[in-house]
Automatic annotation (TrEMBL):
It comes from Arthrobacter psychrochitiniphilus. Belongs to the UPF0312 family. It holds the Pfam family YceI. This is Polyisoprenoid-binding protein. InterPro entries: Lipid/polyisoprenoid-bd_YceI (IPR007372), TTHA0802/YceI-like_sf (IPR036761). SUPFAM superfamilies: YceI-like (SSF101874).
Length: 185
């Protein structure tokens, strides 16, 4: 039996739209085995549909691959190119949830993540941040979630060997979501 969504949290049933201007889809990958490179995607859209229980909830998201930004123009151009995202052939990354479990505070959301046309099942562990009505009378809900993927499983195999051993870019990539949704009126 799945947890019932409580009205006391402010999470109303129905459609919620991703507020991309108040959301971040970020990543972190180890570079040269000694440091971490962080960045984000700046263009995204998505929706959250809440039913009576968490098991009834569903999320869909589409991210524009060309919006990849790590703060370094040369690296960003390389990652957008054929060695990594190949944004001309694969302009979007998508996520479609298949299940949500847990409770309103701590949840796990599983779904199909598609990168470079390759779909894999991933699970995000997350936290509910709360609900607030903003100055413009919009009802907003905030969530944070993380997962770790193998970039090789999505066809992102480019790498370079290091003189001291190891490789330039780690296989593991942490994806971090800090997202806000607005309740549809």
């Amino acid at each position: 039996m799945s947890a019932t969504i409580s009205e006391s949290t402010g999470l109303a049933q129905g459609l919620w739209t991703l507020d991309s201007s108040h959301s971040t889809v970020g990543f972190m990958v180890r570079h040269a085995g000694i440091s971490k490179v962080r960045g984000q995607f700046t263009e995204m859209e998505g929706s959250l549909n809440l039913g009576q229980t968490l098991a009834d909830a569903s999320v869909t998201a589409t991210i524009t691959a060309a919006s990849f930004s790590s703060g370094d123009a040369n690296r960003d151009a390389h990652v957008r190119g054929a060695d990594f995202f190949d944004v001309d052939l694969f302009p979007t990354l998508t996520f479609v949830s298949t299940s949500v479990s847990g409770d309103e505070e701590d949840f796990e959301m599983t779904g199909e993540l598609t990168i470079r046309g390759i779909s894999k099942t991933v699970s995000f562990k997350g936290e509910f941040g709360g609900v607030a009505v903003d100055a413009f009378s919009a009802t907003r809900a905030g969530f944070e979630a993380k997962t770790v993927i193998s970039r090789k499983e999505f066809g992102l195999t480019w790498n370079a060997a290091l003189e001291a051993g190891g490789v330039l870019v780690s296989d593991k990539v942490t994806i971090s979501l800090e997202v806000a949704f607005v309740k549809a009126v």
